[in-house]
Structures are given as structure tokens and as C-alpha cells.
Amino acid sequence: MNQIFALADCNNFYVSCERVFDPKLEKKPVVVLSNNDGIVVARSNEVKALGVKMGAAVFEIENLIKQHNIRLLSSNYTLYADMSNRIMETLSMFTPDMEIYSIDEAFLNLAGFKNSLTEYGQQIRQTVKQWTGIPLSIGMGKTKTLAKIANYIAKRSEKAQGVLDLTDSPYTERALSQVPVEKVWGVGWRTSAKLQKMGINTALELSRADVEKIRDKFGVVFARVVCELRGEVCYSLEQNPPAKKSVSVSRMFGEAIETKEQLMESAATYTARAAEKLREQHAAAGLITVYVATSQFIKDTYFNSLTVKLNVSTNNTFELINAAVWCIENLYRENCQFKRCGIILNDLVPQENVQHSLFDNTDRQKSKRLMEAIDKINCKGDASLRWAVEGLNQSWQVRFKRLSKRYTTNWKEIPEVA
Fold first, then answer.
1. What's CA 74's distance to the chain center, in Å?
2. For the segment 14-56, what is each residue's pLDDT rounded down to a tens digit?
3. Where are the beta strands (DSSP E) in 48-135?
4. pTM (predicted TM-score)
5. SS3 state of residue 284
6. Is the dihedral of CA 216, 219, 222, 228 positive or negative?
């Protein structure tokens, strides 16, 4: 049976999450910020209409903020993650075949549904809106890439009302002609520039390109994009996505730091979070990389990194922090104003496949029980247990001065009804 791909994509997801619990934000210009409230990571349609680009710095749009009374909010990732889980759970009711593609996107396989796909799409859309408060758009096609195209148009077409079915439509070529080539799934800005030099400016023109020439110039992976635009399935649903090859945690500091102690605190804190992620996916790491950097805007910039190979692959926070602290000892430079630190865990293996060393004296079973106990306690609160090297004050932490409440995950911040 041929697959019918439907892409369900939440509209302005971060902004929509904020509007669910603060209806006063509806139809108002809203921006969600990240990196110490300095960078735009989400925009309402009202802000997009003003020409504000994703990734714009706040200082660059100060005049627009004042002129149009744009509401600024800090990224509330705890809220967004929980809302995403609720949306994905709702979507799973409509088909057994689903791939969660990102925090606000999912591919559904709707093959075998005899009712009108457009009507079914509207039912899905209305149910998600009713149960979670989040608006979404649905695009359908014979391939993932065509579903992406349909979704792109569904978001922007008043006639589509949020749902567009291109699985058996006489208007498919017309739809492809309306989509700029840079908006095609898998086309980056460099590739887009090269395609435009070849006279390929729309998705339709790309679908008609010579596959052999595209393969020779851009490689076999990109040639599949052309095939997908023609309705040839190259990418199936990934219901069991492959295990991650690395785990990383990196943050900008709320303020530049100069002392070795503060740098160690940040490295230890990020390592502890990375170790939690490892245990969540039942993996262990054989390599840890630590890097530090100053601001790129100062005169004497500094960036350096160190990688440590662990004697035994592990997800034990204590062992990983020890390695991270050793790295900081060797990376630290006096009179440097550090602005960022990052941890990358590589060489991942399933925790049950860890090869033990003859000279390893660690009680691995005891270590596992300790980590499980710490995780169990911490999942009930906000990092209730921390390692001493993480520090208590942590004045370097990222600033979230405009943070909304964690309405769905914290009893103390649950919405109140007057």
C-alpha cells in the first residue's frame, strides 16, 4: 500500500504556547527570546509582517519594539516541551504510524483512510486546537517533501484553512510553482544560491531538473529531493529513530566570568545535565570534549577545547565531572572574560554493552543504583540534588528575565481562575 504522508506543524509554536495561558497576547506582536534574552527565536505573524527575521538581535529591533509595542518573552522550554508531549499524544490517536520530527512537527501516515483526507485533516487540526489550544497546519503529499510543500502553502493560504492535500491534486504543479526553491525541505542557502544561478528558482523548476546533473553537482542525497518532488518516496517514516551519536550541552553565560572556579561550576553543571541525557537514552560515553570561548566581539578572542578518552565508557555523573574539571584546569587562561562553555559526549554505546576494564575498580552496579536514585529525586523537583562543584550561587547562569510560568509542570505556578 502506498504511503500518504501528512505533516502536522504547529503555527509559531513557542508564541502559541504563551498565548494559551495568556489570551491577552492574541493578535498582538509577540517575540520569544533566547541567549540571555538577546536573540529572537520565535515570532508571531504580526512580528513577521514587520520584517523581523529569525535570529535577529534585540538591539537591532529596538525601534520596532517601541513603535509597535512588541511583547518580549524569555524562552520557557519546560512549558514548550510539556505542550509538545500533549500535542504528540493527541496526534497519535489519529494514526498508528507517526514520526515525531521535532518539538512542533510530526509526520503521519494516513494511507488506508477512506474518508476525505482534507476533512480528516480538519478533524485532526480542530481536535489539537480544542485539547491543547495550539493551532497547527497540515500538509499532505505522496512523499515527505511534498507534504512539506503542502504544509508551507497551508500555513499561508486563507482558502486552505490550514489543511492542503496534494496527494492526488490537479493543482500540484501550480502549488510547486508558488514555493521558492530556498523553501524546499533540504535546500540550504548555499545550495539555493547555486540553484538560482542554474535558473532554478521554484520547487517546480527543481522537480523538472535533470536528476543526473543534480546528483553530479550536489550529491546523491540532494538528488533524492528532486525524486521526492516528483512523487517518488525516498524517505519513509522513522518510527524508531536511530540512536544519537553524541550528546551536547552548551550555554552562553548571563555575564562574562573570569575565575577558574566559576568556569568549573559551569562545566560541572553542563556535564551533569549531559549525563542525565545519556541515562535517559540508556547510553554511556567513551569520550568527553570540553570547550570554552570568550565573546567574538572583543579584541583578544580565545577559543580552545580538550577531549578526554575515558578508561571505561560511562554515564556516571561523578566520573564525567572529574574529566570535565581536568579539562577546565588545562583550558583556563587568566584575564580572559569567558562567555561560553560547552560539553560534548561522544563514542556512545548502549549502557548494557559497556566493555569493562581489567584495572577498573569502580563498583558499576552500585554506581548505577546511585545515579538512578539521584535521577528519581531530581525528576520530582528542580535539580533538588546537585554536585558540590556545581556551586550554589551560579551568577553566570543564563538570564531569563521575561520568563512566563511553568503552567503545566509546576504546582506552584498552575494557572489560577478568579
1. 16
2. 999 999 999 999 999 999 998 788 899 999 999 999 999 999 9
3. 71-74, 98-102, 105-109
4. 0.80
5. strand
6. positive
